Structures are given as structure tokens and as C-alpha cells.
Automatic annotation (TrEMBL):
Pfam families: Acetyltransf_1, MarR_2. One of its GO terms (molecular function) is DNA-binding transcription factor activity. Residues 165-323 form the N-acetyltransferase domain. Residues 151-160 have a biased composition (Basic residues). Residues 146-167 are annotated as: Disordered. It comes from the Bacteria. This is MarR family transcriptional regulator. PROSITE patterns: GNAT (PS51186), HTH_MARR_2 (PS50995).
């Protein structure tokens, strides 16, 4: 026979918190709360597809713990509305690859914007001195529950938690963060000197001083609410050509696909802005970054040894035609 819960039990406290928080964020009437035509579940599916552009239906079902039939009906609705495209996976024809269309990306961006505005309005009522304490408490709740769930499922096996990643435009201080983290990481990992920091500072300063937001953009990747990566898309000297610059992912955030998300955002933006080609310059020692570029269809077109940043390197030029999508 079940024992009734009392106000002092963790079960009571958790249920009380669930009722409080779902009411606070408008989860019971999500579409009206954010002024969007999507339920909370539909919004979450669009969010997952936006942050992982090439997603299999099976992976999506597992990530969100959704019933297979329910997810299939939801995706069919999205397909009728022109939000997604479904096709057999290139890796396994038995699996279904789900990709957002341009309309789907617009819908996901609108949802993200409305969600950020809603959370911002909530935080506006919290004293600034309490906001970091609130964020830390939320991280603690999430980490404790996730650790408990992993231990229950895996009998002691440890698995890296998937980071909650969003891409956003830079806010105050973010451009300075790009300079600082590039300089610190490349010094620590490759021994590059202050010459590289100077180069990054000039690139960032040029963008901050004069850029066309319709043709140039910076993305900051946030993982669990903290900056975890960045990339820039700027105009090249060659007409009709954009240049990808300063791709970076923090060491403790690697392995979650953040680099792929940043490059995808850069490629899609350059294509939608009307550029014919996207180029980049990198060095042969940056093996992980070169792997990302290859996956997105970039082709190595030139190499040249040079000495820069206090070390001997081999510079590489890569290019991606934008008139057609890579297979």
C-alpha cells in the first residue's frame, strides 16, 4: 500500500516545484504564452532540429523520450506545413533523416527569440545580485537529477551529458571574450604568441567598428548558459565571397557538435545573404577544425608554409561553393 506523501518529503517538494514552474513559464498554454502556433512539444522538436541540422528520427525520439507514433504524426504535420523535409539517412536507409527547411529555420528562430524574451522578462524581476545564484541552483538541480538517472540506467556506467546549446548574437563583452579565449586557447594548445592575439583583436575590432548586419554576422554558442564557442562570417575582398573566421569551441564543450552547429549557421547565413562562395584560411595543425570543414563540403585549394605566431606552420585555403548544397 502506498504511503501518502507529506509536506516534508522530497516527492512533495519536487511536485510542488513542478506545479510552480510549469505555471511560471506558461507550459500549460505554451502557444498563447509565447504568441506562437506551436505546443511545448512541437517547440522542443523544432529546437532540437535547429541545433542539430542533420538529425535522424530515431535519435530525436530517444533524445526527447517521445512515443514513436506520436513523433511520426508530429513530423508529418511539420512536413505538410513546409517546416521539415524527410528522407532516408545516407548512413542507413532504414533510418529517416529530418532536416529543417528555410521556413522551419525561421520558425525555430522565432521560437528562440520569443523564449529568450519570456525568460528575460522573468529575470527582470530578479535582483541582479541573485541571478547568478539562481542559475547555479538550476545547474545543481539538473546535474543531480541527470547523475541519478544515469546511475539508475547504466549500473554505474558514466556517460557525458549532452550540452544544452544555443547560438545567439554577441552581447556586451562577447567580442572581447572572443579575443581573450582565442589568445588563451591557442597559446595553451599550440604555443602561439601575442602576434595571434593581435590578429584576432584587429579582426574583431574591424567587425565592431563597421559591418553590414545583412552580410556579416557573429555567433556565440552558449552551452548550459555559458559561452562555449564562436564563429564569424564577414565579407571577403573578392566580390560575391564571404569568409568564415575565428571558429572556436571551448575544450570542455567539445564533443557535443558545437563546431558543426557554428559552421552550419555560417554556411546557411552566407547562402541566404546571396554570396556565391564561402572561403576560410586555417593551419594544418588544427585537425579537428579541418574535419568539420570537410564534413560541410569545404575543399582544400592551396597550402603554403609560413612562420607566424612564433611557430612554423602550413597555412591552408579552403573554399565552399554556395550555389548548390553538398551531398
Amino acid at each position: 500500500m502506498a504511503t501518502p506523501t507529506t509536506p516534508t518529503t522530497p516527492i512533495h517538494e519536487m511536485r510542488a516545484f513542478n506545479r510552480f514552474y510549469t505555471n511560471l513559464i506558461g507550459a500549460l498554454d505554451y502557444s498563447r504564452h509565447l504568441y506562437v502556433p506551436y505546443t511545448l512539444t512541437e517547440s522542443r522538436v523544432l529546437y532540437e532540429l535547429a541545433r542539430s541540422p542533420r538529425t535522424d528520427a530515431a535519435d530525436l525520439r530517444s533524445e526527447l523520450s517521445l512515443d514513436a507514433g506520436y513523433l511520426s504524426r508530429l513530423l508529418a504535420k511539420f512536413e505538410r506545413d513546409g517546416l521539415v523535409e524527410r528522407a532516408p539517412s545516407a548512413d542507413d536507409s532504414r533510418r529517416q533523416r529530418i532536416t529543417l527547411t528555410a521556413r522551419g529555420r525561421d520558425a525555430a528562430e522565432l521560437l528562440d527569440e520569443r523564449s529568450r524574451e519570456a525568460v528575460g522578462s522573468l529575470l527582470a524581476d530578479v535582483p541582479p545580485a541573485d541571478r547568478s545564484r539562481l542559475a547555479a541552483a538550476m545547474r545543481t538541480v539538473r546535474e543531480i537529477l541527470e547523475d541519478g538517472r544515469r546511475q539508475g540506467r547504466g549500473k554505474g556506467r558514466r556517460r557525458e551529458r549532452r550540452a544544452d546549446v544555443t547560438l545567439r548574437e554577441p552581447g556586451p563583452g562577447d567580442l572581447g571574450w572572443i579575443v581573450q579565449r582565442n589568445a588563451a586557447l591557442y597559446a595553451a594548445e599550440f604555443g602561439w604568441n601575442a602576434e595571434y592575439e593581435g590578429l584576432v583583436a584587429r579582426i574583431v575590432a574591424d567587425f565592431a567598428q563597421d559591418h553590414d548586419p545583412h552580410l556579416e554576422r557573429v555567433w556565440i554558442a552558449e552551452a548550459d548558459g555559458r559561452p562555449a564557442g564562436c564563429v564569424m562570417c564577414v565579407r571577403d575582398e573578392v566580390p560575391g565571397t564571404a569568409r568564415l573566421r575565428l571558429l572556436l569551441v571551448e575544450p570542455d564543450a567539445r564533443g557535443h557538435g558545437i563546431g558543426d552547429q557554428l559552421v552550419t549557421a555560417c554556411v546557411e547565413f552566407a547562402r541566404s545573404a546571396g554570396y556565391r562562395e564561402l572561403t576560410l584560411w586555417t593551419n594544418d595543425v588544427l585537425e579537428s577544425a579541418r574535419g568539420i570543414y570537410k564534413r560541410h563540403g569545404f575543399v582544400l585549394v592551396a597550402e603554403k608554409p609560413h612562420r607566424s605566431f612564433g611557430v612554423d606552420l602550413v597555412g591552408q585555403d579552403w573554399r565552399l561553393p554556395l550555389h548548390e548544397r553538398p551531398a
